[in-house]
Here is the input.
Amino acid sequence: MSDTQWPRFEVFKQDSHADRHAGVGSVHAPDGEMALLIARDVFVRRPDCVSLWVAPAQRISSFTVQQLASAAPPLRGSHGRGPESFEVFKKVHHKGVHTHVGQVTAETPFDALRAACQDFAEPPAHVWWLVPSASLVRSEPADSDSFFEPALHKPFRDQAFYRIQTLLRRLKKAGLAQKDGE
Amino acid sequence: MREQVAMGDASTAQSSRPDEAVLLRQFEARIARGQKIEPGDWMPEEYRRQLIRMISQHAHSEIVGMLPEGEWITRAPNLRRKMILLAKVQDEGGHGQYLYHAAETLGVTREEMIDGLLSGRAKYSSIFNYPSLTWADMGTIGWFVDGAAILNQTMLAKCSYGPYARAMVRICAEESFHMKQGKEMILLMSQGTPAQRAMVQDAIDRWWQPTLMMFGPHDKDSPNTPTLARWGIKTKTNDELRQTFVNQVAPEVLAIGFTLPDPHLHRDEASGNWVYGPIDWDEFWRVVGGDGPCNRQRLAVRRKAHEDGRWVRAALQAYAERQAQS
Here is the structure.
């Protein structure tokens, strides 16, 4: 029965080259390669994406400010494998999403958190996510044509495509319902 | 921050945890200040339970909601309408996935939720148990059903649980296209042949009452609402949302020359509200309880899709395992 309960991957989408990667949600997949493909189908039906990253949820160390204040941050993978690079994501605003702010190098996720708290102190975060850089799977610039290009040519997915108010005005001008004219 | 981090020794932390009452006060104060609750934060068990119930029902509704419209993709009258309908149904599949994943952050698995749907234990919106009989149903579902859903979802986009609110923001942005394509279709058909207009009127007659039922029981019969309001999950009541919907849609339907199947419907000059007649709650509960026109058919289609997809899942799994070995 458990053939759909694959590992979860968090998905980060870059809306334009001027934007940072920001968390949009998650997908289930048997591996990172498939996670990237599913993420493309689930999160890129609109033409606002230039790059996608997926990160296995079990490799993400998450710390909320409340957890840190209660002095019991959940520690995961606290045994170091030597220094490695971590991607740092911060959720700054209550209504915001987890947004990529940069990298730190550290032995453990917890050390990475300490480093991130120093390097990216401002503005204060509500939630920190630290992800080993090597565990991310990223779309390549060469994928762009097959991944992101098709959504550009589907303007009917945008609500602005439907000129409802114009149509209503035109109907009203024309005497509204045909019923009146019959 | 460094001080707090340095204190974070998990082994000693458990003994110093504040009690439930204090945590609940802090939790409710955070919500009152407009803060979002995130996975990992403390939350009352009832908050978690209610959210899992609501989000999973919402996810199932998106998934089952693909069916009444999916039946018409091959019968769309032209390529433009076919591409639009295909895109709309595809969005709904995506929305179901956003929501399953938002619910998962509360500690339930997607597997458990899908199992609940396929076994018939889980509920989904009663509206999708009505049949879509003509092409005019596609326009009417978009205008009425998606229009009603947007009102509910716009409220939920402001809810206190971060992952649900974020999923809703994404869904609302995409869903306005669903409503507008339907409304556009009905506006155009209102100018069409007598047969087309009769088709629209028939669709309106069938979908109006079930759409009003979508908002759920009257406030006096909706025991969860006060708690859900205090915890910032539902900030408007069923009756408030239903009234907003009727006020928006009724005058426009009448203005383009159609009627609504409610002899009591009129505008109350004093309040400005459109007053509607009694809703058949016996029918609502019958449909919710599994005995609507299409309940069995909908679940049978979902079960078949799940079974038919089994070999694809097995293939993906086998590929991943082989890649991991090499």
